[in-house]
Amino acid sequence: MKGFNSAMAITAAGLLVMTSSAEPLPRSSKCESPLVQDKPLVDSIHLKDLLKCAQDLEDIAYATPYRNRVHGSEGHKNSVKYFKDTLEALGDYYTIELQEYTTEVTFGSSRVFSADGIDFATDSFEYGNNGTWTDVPLVNVANLGCNPEDIPDSVAGNVALIARGSCTFVQKITNAGAKGAVAAIIYNNAEAGIAAGTLGGVNDLIPVGGLTRADGLALAARVEAGETVTSSGDYWAYVDFGTSHNVIATSKYGDPNNVLFLGAHSDSVDKGPGINDNGSGSCGLLTVAKALSKWRTNSQVKFAWWTAEEEGLLGAEHFVETSTAADLAKIRLYLNFDMIASPNYYLGIYDGDGSRYNITGPPGSDVAEKLFEDWFDAKNLTTFGSEFNGRSDYGPFLDAGVPCSGLDTGADGVKTEEEMTIYGGIAGEPYDQNYHDAGDNVSNLALFPFEVNGKAIAHAVATYGKSWEGFPARLASNSTIPARRHVHARESGASKRHNCGVNEVLDY
Ligand SMILES: [Zn+2]
C-alpha cells in the first residue's frame, strides 16, 4: 500500500537533500560532520571502487614470486601497507594500529605430476620432501610395497609406482628409496580421491606424490604390458616463519564504550592471490571505511583486516587474546566478512538465531542477522542462514562472548537446486570453484553479490554507527576471556581522543 505518510517522507527527504546541498552547514570543527545517514552511505558504495580495490590486491599478489598474499609474504606485507596507506590518506579520521604476529606458513608450493606429457590430478603428502624429476620411467612395485622384496631392482634411478594399503606410507617409500628409486608415486586403493596423507614428521625419504586409484591402475597396467611410461614430477613446499600485521582502524567519532567492530581477513593461501577469499571482504570493509569518513557516528566504529586467518584464525585470535576483558566488553557487535563475491554464489547471513543450523550466538547475534535479513528482504533478495560455526575470524570473538554476525556467499560447499533457481549458477558445483586455488582472481568474482554485500555492510555501519536502539546490552558476564597482556597503545588513547559526539543523548 502506498500511503500518505510515505509520500510525505519522500517530500521531506527531498527537501532535506536540497537544503543541505544548496546551503552546507558551516563546519567550525571536525566534530561537526553530519551524523551518518543510511541511504547516502549505502548509495556511496559502488562496484567500481570495490573492483578497483580487488584489482589492486591482485596486482600486489602477482607482482611477487609466489603470486599470493600468504601471511608474512611480500604479497601480504604489501596488502597490509595498501590498507594502511588508504586509511591514512583519509586524514585523521581513523587511528591506525598495526599488530604484529609471527607464525609458520607455507609461502609457496607445487604439486604437479605428468606421464608421457599428460597431466594427472595429484597431491602431496604432509612432510613429503621437495623433489623435481623429468622424463623418468615408472616401475611397478609388487604387492603393496610393504616388504623390501616387493621392490624390484629395476626401480633404481626410476620412479616407483605403489598401491596404497596394509602398511604406512613411510614404510613403502623407505623400501623404494632403499632400492634406489628417485621418487615414489602412491595411488589410492579405494575410490576415495587422490592418495594423500601425512608422513608423520620431518624425514629424509625420497619425494612422493599421490594419484587416484583409477589413474594409478591405468598407469600400472601400461607398465605391466611392457610399455615405457616416462613421468615428470614437481613437488615442493617452501615453509618458514612469517611475520605480518593485523591492521586495526578506530574511528575518531563515537562512544568508545559502545563499539561496532567489523573485520575481514587480509591474507590468502599459497595457491593463489585470494581475491574472493578474502580480497572481497577486505575491499568491502575498506570501501565502507572510506565512505564513512565523511560522517560522524555516535558509536565508535572499528575496522580490522586480520592476518593469518588461513593458518587458523590466528591474527584475530591474537587480537582477542591480547585484549582485556573490559575492552572486549565494550564491543556491542562484531561483524565478519569472508568471501562475499563467490562466482557460484548464494546470499548468506550468519545464522545467529539458530533457525537453520541450531547454533545460536550471544544475544544480539540474532538481532544483527535480522537487520541484514530485513535489508535484503526490502530489496526482494532471498537470503539463507549461513552456518554459524566460528570457522572464520569471528570465532575468537564468539568464544569471548561478543555478539557476532556477518555475510558470505559460500566457499567449498555445494550449491543446491533451490539456490540455483533463485540465484542462477550451477547446482551441484561448489559456491567457489576456485576456492583456495590459483583461479581465485578478479576475473572470477561475481559482481552482483560483491556490490550488494558492500552496500549491506554500509547499512549495518550506518544503523549501529548511529544507534544501538533495540540491540541488547552487553552483560558483564558475557566476557569470558580473562585479562591477559594489555595492548597499551589502544587502551590509553581511546577514551580521551575519540570523544566527538559522545556528548549527545544516546539511546544505547
Ligand atoms: Zn577466508
Automatic annotation (TrEMBL):
<keyword id="KW-0645">Protease</keyword>
<dbReference type="Pfam" id="PF04389">
    <property type="entry name" value="Peptidase_M28"/>
</dbReference>
<comment type="similarity">
    <text>Belongs to the peptidase M28 family. M28B subfamily.</text>
</comment>
<feature type="domain" description="Peptidase M28">
    <location>
        <begin position="246"/>
        <end position="458"/>
    </location>
</feature>
<dbReference type="InterPro" id="IPR007484">
    <property type="entry name" value="Peptidase_M28"/>
</dbReference>
<dbReference type="InterPro" id="IPR045175">
    <property type="entry name" value="M28_fam"/>
</dbReference>
<feature type="signal peptide">
    <location>
        <begin position="1"/>
        <end position="22"/>
    </location>
</feature>
<keyword id="KW-0479">Metal-binding</keyword>
<keyword id="KW-0862">Zinc</keyword>
<protein>
    <recommendedName>
        <fullName>Peptide hydrolase</fullName>
        <ecNumber>3.4.-.-</ecNumber>
    </recommendedName>
</protein>
<dbReference type="InterPro" id="IPR046450">
    <property type="entry name" value="PA_dom_sf"/>
</dbReference>
<dbReference type="InterPro" id="IPR003137">
    <property type="entry name" value="PA_domain"/>
</dbReference>
<feature type="domain" description="PA">
    <location>
        <begin position="136"/>
        <end position="219"/>
    </location>
</feature>
<dbReference type="GO" id="GO:0008235">
    <property type="term" value="F:metalloexopeptidase activity"/>
</dbReference>
<keyword id="KW-0031">Aminopeptidase</keyword>
<dbReference type="GO" id="GO:0046872">
    <property type="term" value="F:metal ion binding"/>
</dbReference>
<keyword id="KW-0732">Signal</keyword>
<dbReference type="GO" id="GO:0004177">
    <property type="term" value="F:aminopeptidase activity"/>
</dbReference>
<keyword id="KW-0378">Hydrolase</keyword>
<dbReference type="Pfam" id="PF02225">
    <property type="entry name" value="PA"/>
</dbReference>
<comment type="similarity">
    <text>Belongs to the peptidase M28 family. M28A subfamily.</text>
</comment>
<dbReference type="InterPro" id="IPR041756">
    <property type="entry name" value="M28_SGAP-like"/>
</dbReference>
<dbReference type="GO" id="GO:0006508">
    <property type="term" value="P:proteolysis"/>
</dbReference>
